[in-house]
């Protein structure tokens, strides 16, 4: 059989990374194909919906990675997870993970540990999480779920495994997580963040955003007037690198006037937060300051059709997609003027 260079095998496997059936077939060709394919298969466990049987098998594989030290810690507490003796795994599969979805892990762990007491379950989860968050792993994507308090675990969030993080999904009340990540993660390009109404202390998420050198895409949910003011000041600071912005509120005109490199602006959410009058756009006299010449996609639910018109006019015929909520349009004349503006300025729709 023709022997292919491993670099060629890697390119083949990379092109098949979304084709699970073909990748699994590659595992069976020979040792070389297997060694190239396994890391790609294990890059994002959980990207496909797993059956309960498959989830059980995944959990058992994770258990097999526990070190002797971790096993001893659990045994000293009267916890023995191994009813049978298994051979060591052929690979350190956890080291291949690049996208760490803690929601997926929590669901997998909880389902398999549900018969145990809460304290016992937490102790096991802590040891399992330490398999992922340590100096030997490396992640480019991290999802921290809203409904889990990670303060109960002994996790070090400033580990080297997050130094190359590119995507982060988080909530502002994960204070310790955000504080640790802010010290080690400087290369996040895509950020998804939710800020709750009741929390005025957003200092950690602010510190994290300030630390990023090339933040291109921001998806931000916030329904707190005080926090919005701080977030908008941050958006202005990071305006030079932001190309994709999705908000669930209408920013003040000053923010829009700074986003000169923006390509996608999305404020068309059904749960748009209407800020109080004290924080709303004071007047429309600043409209002339808005110019988004790179804008290609505009989805908006804004308080004034005049802002929409200005955004469309300054997009320099780049717009290919426009989505407008009817909330912004109250009069026939407003609809007519907006329609004319789109017709005159958007030949590429």
Commentary on this structure:
With 349 residues, this protein is an alpha/beta fold. Among the domains are: 1-41; 252-273 and 287-349, no CATH class. The chain has helices spanning 6-15, 20-27, 31-41, 52-63, 68-76, 102-113, 118-132, 175-184, 203-210, 225-237, 253-258, 305-313, 332-345, and strands spanning 99-101, 141-143, 167-171, 190-195, 217-222, 244-247, 264-267, 297-300, 321-324. The protein has a nine-stranded parallel β-sheet. Strand 3 (167-171), helix 8 (175-184) and strand 4 form a beta-alpha-beta unit. Helix 2 runs antiparallel to helix 3. It is globular and about 75 Å long.
Oligomer: single chain
The strand line-up of the biggest sheet is 1-2-3-4-5-6-7-8-9
Low-pLDDT stretches: none
Which percent range fits the helix content?
A: 25-40%
How many helical elements? 13
Query: Main beta sheet, described?
Result: 9 strands, parallel
**What's the gyration radius in Å?**
25 Å
**Global structural class:** alpha/beta
Order of helices and strands: HHHHHEHHEEHEHEHEHEEHEH
How many individual β-strands? 9
Report mean pLDDT, rounded to a whole number: 83
Instruction: Report the span from N to C terminus.
Output: 52 Å
Overall body shape: globular
Strand content: 5-15%
Organism: Rhizophagus irregularis
Protein name: F-box domain-containing protein
List key phrases describing it.
9 strands; single chain; 349 residues; globular; alpha/beta
